[in-house]
Amino acid sequence: MREEKLGILCSGRGSNLASIIEAVERGDIPAEIAVVIADKADAYALERAREKGIPAVPVIYRDYAERADFERALLKELQAHRVTLVVLAGFMRILSPIFVHAYTGRILNIHPALLPSFPGVKVSGCTVHFVDEGMDSGPIIMQAAVPVLEGDTEETLAARVLEQEHRIFPASIKLYVEDRLRTDGRKVHIL
Ligand code: GRF
Questions:
Q1: Long-range CB pairs of 55-62, under 8 A, 24+ apart, other chains included
Q2: Ordered DSSP codes for 122-185
Q3: Is 111 a catalytic residue?
Q4: Which residue's C-alpha comes closest to atom 6 of ligand 1?
Q5: Distance 102 CA to ligand 1 centre (A)
Q6: pLDDT computed for residue 120 by the predictor
Q7: 8 A C-beta contact, residue 127 and residue 140
Q8: pLDDT tens digits along 70-119
């Protein structure tokens, strides 16, 4: 077992954050949430963290002249809270290699689609993956599929996908914290 300290990055409502907090509270994920950071001051995710007594820090993108400065500010907060695993839970910014290098193999993301995906698909779903320097290209840890139903709107489909996000994201974090993931090239083996 690793002694992991999670740093969770969000941009909005934070429903994935809530599912992770619940999993930690239940004792399912044996780790501590050290800090929640949002790139917007009004992100509801910050409020959810504060309600639970978790340090909640806004790091506002437009306060910085360049992306590199913004990322350095993020890293400073993460390091100040001794974060060992970065969790991107609905974080709507692309992270450059500067950031990714600082936490190689220690950044997880949830993506609300099956990767790779394209228009007109009959199934959708979500993907938890390690973050590397590419765009949604890191090794995949877990996926869940949901049907695309006749008459689905973006909202009804997103709600069906979100339900699965709330299941596979905490489950993936648990596996990471329990040191049960082995990356072999682009493949992740679960022990
Ligand atoms: C989720 O669908 C996530 O996959 C996507 O943004 C949404 C965030 O939702 N990247 P929430 O903030 O976790 O509720």
A1: 55/81, 61/93
A2: SEEEEEEEE--SSSS-SPEEEEEEEEPPTT--HHHHHHHHHHHHHHHHHHHHHHHHTT-EEEET
A3: yes
A4: 90
A5: 24
A6: 78
A7: yes
A8: 999 999 999 999 999 999 999 999 999 999 999 999 999 999 988 766 77
Beta bridge partners of 58: 38
Query: Mean pLDDT over residues 169-187, rounded?
Result: 96
Take atom 7 of ligand 1 and give the residue whose Cα is closest. Answer: 90
User: Which position has the token pair 């500010």?
Assistant: 73
Q: Tokens for 21?
A: 């907090």
- Distance in Å, CA 128 to ligand 1 centroid: 12
Residue nearest to atom 14 of ligand 1 (CA): 15
Q: Is 39 a pocket residue for ligand 1 (Cβ < 6 Å)? A: no
Q: Say yes or no to pLDDT of 2 above 80.
A: no
The CA-atom distances, in angstroms, between 106 and each of 6, 66, 102, 159, 183 are 10, 24, 9, 28, 12
Residue to probe by mutation, ligand 1, list 165, 167, 169, 173, most atoms within 8 Å of CB: 165
Taking a C-beta distance cutoff of 8 angstroms, is the pair 126, 151 a contact?
Answer: no
SS3 state at 54: coil
Mean pLDDT value across the chain? 95
